[in-house]
Amino acid sequence: MAGKLQDKVAIITGGGSGMGRETVLRFLDEGVKVLVADLNEDNGKETLSLARARGQGERIGFIRTDVALERDVAAMVDEAQRLFGTLDIAYLNAGVGGAFGPIAETTVEGWDYTFAVLTRSVFLGMKHASIAMKSHGRGGAILSTASIAGIVGGGGSHAYSAAKAAVISLTENVAAELAPHRIRVNAIAPGVISTPLVHRGRPEKFEQQFARQPWPERGEGSHIAAAAAFLCSDDARFITGEVLKVDGGLLAQGIALWGAGKDNPFLRTAGVNHGTTGKAMEVRRLE
């Protein structure tokens, strides 16, 4: 990957913690100049301190941003260009868990808040980043954080899942629109990733969720950062409109109706089910 992102200018929303922070640090290692945008100023300053401790302070900036407000998003894009002269990458990663609970208990305010932070923010980021990228005439890459919850039911609350499904649809539609301008638009769909947003300071509570995925290692923010680095690099220059699952094979195992991993009886036995043909089912148990 070395050199494929060198000297590019990126905005990373939600860059103050979790997957966003990991991506900020990965991008800095790749030679990118990064503007961190986050609503939490303390988290943003901590990310800057980490970068400075690594000798990368001259290639990073911070702006407090409410990604649901158009004036803040426009100011964010302006700040990146003021600091670094251009804009090549916008990673629209900021998010919240949003409204949860039975649909009869979901308030309109909770629903609207969820969509404002998770979906309106992506629309606004795509809008203002694309204006800047077109003005510079160099193309660019716009990346969003979707979720496997937006692909299949059962991955999150109904409000969160619907908002992330909208991000996926928006990604595909805007990718087609911006392709003639050499602006690529993709999304990452994480599975269960160990971040403060998920574990809220108690990662041990989520070991059961990680145990449900086929891959034996827990999902980390660095896995998302690696995927982001690829999708925003020149190596991915022919990839647009893509939603890349980064979930340890969670969706590959499907709905796991019969259990997952060692709990799946189809992995404990082998044979042939002949249905209603009149021929007996062949079954042999595996050790």
Blueprint (SSEs and pairs):
Blueprint: E1 9-13, H1 18-29, E2 33-38, H2 41-53, E3 60-64, H3 70-84, E4 89-92, H4 108-136, E5 140-145, H5 158-178, E6 183-190, E7 193-194, H6 196-199, H7 207-211, E8 219-220, H8 221-231, E9 243-246, E10 269-272, E11 282-285
Helix pairs in contact: 1-8, 3-4, 4-5
What is shown here, in short?
This protein is of the alpha/beta class and 287 residues long.
Order of helices and strands: EHEHEHEHEHEEHHEHEEE
Structural class: alpha/beta
Count of helical regions: 8
- Give the strand line-up of the largest sheet: 3-2-1-4-5-6-9
For the biggest sheet, the summary is: 7 strands, parallel
The CATH topology name of the largest domain reads: Rossmann fold
* Cα-atom radius of gyration: 21 Å
CATH architecture call of the largest domain: 3-Layer(aba) Sandwich
**Count of extended strands:** 11
Distance between the termini: 43 Å
- Provide the residue-averaged pLDDT: 91
Task: Let me know the CATH homologous superfamily of the largest domain.
Answer: NAD(P)-binding Rossmann-like Domain
Strand content: 15-25%
Which term fits the overall shape? elongated
Low-confidence stretches: none
Task: Please give a structural write-up.
The chain starts with 8 loop residues before the first strand and ends with a strand. The protein is 38% helix and 17% strand. The chain is an alpha/beta fold. It folds into two domains: 9-254, NAD(P)-binding Rossmann-like Domain (Rossmann fold, 3-Layer(aba) Sandwich); 256-287, no CATH class. Helix 1 packs across helix 8.
